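BUG: 3D viewer hangs when loading the predicted structure for this chain

Environment: internal workstation, default settings.
Expected: structure renders.
Actual: progress bar stalls at 90%.

Input used:
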Amino acid sequence: MKKVLTKTAKIVLPLLLGGFILYWVYLDFDFARAGVMLTHGLRWDWMALSLLFGILSHVVRGYRWCQMLEPLGVSPRGGRCVDAVYVSYAASLVIPRIGEVSRCGLLSRYGQVSFSKSLGTVVTERLVDTLSILLIAGVTLWLEFPVFLTFFRQTGTKIPSFVHLLGSPWFYVALFCLVGVIVLLVYLARMLSFFERVKGVALDMWQGILSLRHVRNIPLYILYTVLLWVCYFLHFYLTFFSFPFTEGLGFQAGLVMFVAGTFAVVVPTPNGAGPWHFAIITMMMLYGVGNNDAALFALIVHGIQTLLVILLGLWGWLHLSLGTKVH
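Structure tokens produced before the viewer hung:
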């Protein structure tokens, strides 16, 4: 009974958290505008180009993962790694953060790769990604800090009092996001503690974590990492040109919103639903876009990108299954 409740909570709580935030963000939103924009106002050529970079980001991640697996004495085909990445992102829509575990399980089943060793490589991969986004965030803050100062000076905006802050729904949205992150960290700590209690798993994981030290072609690994984040950025930034009210936003504005959105998806909700919308809308308004337009942008872009994740997940699962039957 306890296991059933735990599994149910892992699915229901992220949905409730994301739903609560979305409710506050879109409380007074006219959803009919979304239909009009999709059929008449959206530039689908730019949206398609952005989706292409979304697909490429998964491909690059898959091949970079293969590089980290080679020092462990296994050489899975690049296509299988990519398919496992496709499925992992789709799986995380059901249970946030389960993708890291699911892709290791898929590669163990279809690529004969040790689950625990591959999980160790994913841990290292996430550490590399964390360092990458922190570097991008630092550069973005350095580039755009004067813009923030100018905004507050010209608009006369002042830091709200503590009483006003407690009366704002956005305070509670941010609070729920913080609680969500804490819950995620506790869950990850308990998961690692479980693995450490299993004989031999901790050692295999450690070998996977250290695999980066023995990657044969470090320049290629660095290139893959740079390309990965370039693809992620273009996957988001090119959507600006799909809407008439965001096509004039510059490259640096795109960087600010990309960084804000990347940090927002740390909150354990399906594909960052809720926290991502909140972050993008807030930062977009900072650059002069109206609240309703910003909300429309976030709703459509997140919806289309989530649909892409689902389709790629289905493709990856079918490709792995059918490929195994053929061979």
